[in-house]
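Researcher: Here's a chain I'd like modeled. Treat it as a single chain, no partners, no ligands.
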Amino acid sequence: VQPAGSVTSVESPILWNQDNVWHLTYAVLNEQEQSTIVSQTSSDDGSTWSESTILIEPHDDWASMRVEPTDWLLINETPTLIYAGTDDKTWELGLSQLTGGLWTTRSEPWFELGRPGNWDDSGIRDAKLQLENEEYRIWYSGFDGERWRIGSALQTGTAELSNLSPDDWSRSDVSSVDSGWFHLDGSRHPLPAYSESAEQWFVYYGGVAESVMRVGHAIGSDPYAMRTIYRYPTLGDQITFETTKGDAEGNTIPLE
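Model: Modeled as a single isolated chain. Structure tokens:
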């Protein structure tokens, strides 16, 4: 998939398989209109792909400018897409299902912002769902108005996932992954996993430092208390330092 014409960027791809058919779902950015739509292309063999079709366009107030896919699952054999939308001010999460050949949208977000003052009270995106003891845990990026962090919430209600209310989620008042050495401006894009043998949670994520994003790794025995794992030099590693000219007084030489 490549940008063409008025399309200046293709973003947020997710790949899923249903009935032995691969589906690639992604966001298409139109720079002129400053808006995105969710599109999809399909393939039987992973080599030849169909023409793209539009699944979700900006809609209603909360997702009036941009929409982007974040995860996919089956709910009672119904294809279901979790996506993020924004009015160009606040990102929130929606849920869309394939019904009668069309992907439905809702006038209100599916998953609400956190309580005022919490780490996720000003924006939510990058959601990933994970089964935990026959219930779902949703991992996501939360924004407090200054930087993005990563946290999760566990399903507690017995209603179908698509019909859960805010009271059907157990949410933490603190994030699981915050900023760190290489990502001073926050963390996004969680990719969670759980090891039964190690009894550990694992989360890979994108660490943000200004305009640069790097991949990070965090682990923990509790999904609400993760610790970031940094790679330290070991025997045999080759380390290269680059320097730039010091200041006019010759007092400092910044190291990258």
